[in-house]
Amino acid sequence: MVESKNVKPYYKEEASKKEEVAEMFNNISKRYDFLNHFLSLGIDKIWRKKAIKKLMKISPKRILDIATGTGDFAIAALKLNPEEIVGVDISQGMLDVGIEKMRKKNYDHIIKMQLGDSENLPFETDYFDALTVGFGVRNYENLEKGLADMLRVLRPDGMAVILEFSKPKKFPIKQLFGFYSKRLIPFFGKLISKDKRAYAYLPESVEAFPEGEAFKAIMKKIGYKNIESKLVSGGIATIYSGTK
Predict the structure, then answer these.
(1) What are φ and ψ of residue 89, in 5° steps?
(2) Has residue 38 got a pLDDT over 80?
(3) Within its chain, how far is the Cα of 131 from the centroid?
(4) DSSP 3-state helix, strand, coil percentages of the chain (rounded to 5)?
(5) Strands 237-243 and 154-165: what pairing?
């Protein structure tokens, strides 16, 4: 099994990465939506729309959004006119915010939010037509195990779309994003969220993540087919896709 480098939010000896990630998101859940859109300058909404377009060709009726947080990717998936969307996350704090969001927007009849572990998903094999993950796979404790269980719950010929941060390679995006992610995001994240480590962990986890061809090689090893990737916003993020 392949694990991400040992990058954790709080580096507690007695806690696993999974436990610390859940704690971190519980800590910042009330301010997460504001910070997410503020720090990304709203570009994250455009990325999700592009990722959802990848799924249009298969017209999925059952969609699973893993590491759903407060449900923004699940809401974006409504454009596909599915019959069922399930958002799963290990942070009850994030889910509580998401559940209230769905209720207020009147989406709760189609989007269900529930607690669950991405490496041990509480769903039947071959159940979902499509999977989405937005900025979640780099938080997996065991990347291969998580990707394998995602593949398990996906139906044959179903598609997984994964949106994740990457490291820009070209001037000047590389330099600008480096300064922004390592200086400005931790500063404003700490100031607004009141969590000293949460937004310092973000660039650390991006740095440790096996992006691009390395990540596609892991997907292939697990058994995904028709694997593709597309850089967005000059390589700040990447949209990966693969089928079962």
Answers:
(1) -155, 155
(2) no
(3) 11
(4) 50, 20, 30
(5) antiparallel
Q: Which tens digit of pLDDT belongs to each residue from 84-133? A: 999 999 999 999 999 999 999 999 999 999 999 999 999 999 999 999 99
Query: What Å distances lie between residue 109 and 85, 90, 104, 149, CA to CA?
Result: 10, 22, 11, 26
Q: Quote the pTM value.
A: 0.93
DSSP character at residue 204: H
Sorted by sequence, the CB contacts under 8 Å of residue 130 that are 6+ apart come out as: 55, 58, 60, 62, 63, 64, 77, 80, 154, 158, 159, 160, 161
More confident residue, 210 or 174: 210
C-alpha 240/C-alpha 244 separation (Å) is 14
Report the distance separating Cα 131 and Cα 243, nearest Å: 10
Rg (CA), the chain: 17
Element (H, E) at 85: strand 84-89
pLDDT value at residue 4: 45
pLDDT digits (tens, 9 = 90+) for 54-84: 999 999 999 999 999 999 999 999 999 999 9
Cβ neighbour number for residue 184 with a 10 Å cutoff: 12
DSSP 196: T
Question: What is the DSSP annotation of 14-79?
Answer: TS-HHHHHHHHHHHHHHHHHHHHHHHTTTHHHHHHHHHHHTTGGG--SEEEEET-TTSHHHHHGGG
d(CA 80, CA 85): 10
